[in-house]
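Trying the structure run again after the queue cleared.
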Amino acid sequence: MVMTSNVRRSVGRAIVYVLLIIFSLASLLPFYWMVSASLKPNYSVFSFPPQWIPWPLEWSNYPKAMTFVPFLQFFVNTLIIVVSTLIGSLMSNILVGYAFARLEARGKNVLFYIVLSTMMLPYAVLMVPQYAIFSSLGWVNTFLPLIVPSFFGNAFFIFLLRQFFMGIPRDLEDAAAIDGAGLFSTIVRIIIPVSWPAMITVCIFQIQFTWNDFLGPLIYLNKQSMFTLALGLNDFIGQYTGSWNLLMAASTVILLPILLIFYFGQRLFIGGIVMTGLKD
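Done. Tokens:
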């Protein structure tokens, strides 16, 4: 009976592993095809049967793809927006999340539910009124419409940080209060140092969203010198239709930073996601 139970457990575990491997390979297949196509001559990208392992390797596709359009300028523009939104997102969401988690005020929970309800509003509903506001301020064709909203909080990030802050023992804040620490001093010296998993999670989400954002820059940026990488890639498609190997090379280079950020931050990222569900 013991052996039978162990065998069943081992077989079940093996089946789960096999299914996970199959689904993982299926998920990675498009990425592998993109990298493979980026190292082929253009005529063999859509050859049949497919050439899964490119040979000879066309490494020259990468410098060609990066010089056909000014991707370096697009990278700098994207980096400016990413860093600015990251600062704004951390500042605003930490303060609001801490207020909902710790401060006492009449109607706090109702206000929190109202904030959460904004997550159900699709961006398409907000595009026109936001554009009207930013246009009246003269912010069209600047980075401001893409940066300033991050300084006013994000409902998902507020929820994420609130849940994490509620799991921090109050004894830490009580000890800081006895030592004479004020509200902002407590946040900076006590809350932030023990909240790295949640903060890394917010950072990864914010970087990924801003890095891949296409619709926002498309609406507000008209000059090529101000394009982000997402717009630059679309501009590349428009100018060099048919150069699929170069397009795949440019796409690989643009995707690589996001993969590296997630790879090095995945442990804290997963920990932050898990620990936010510990408190109601």
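Residues 2-38 form one domain. Worth checking whether this holds up in the mutant runs.
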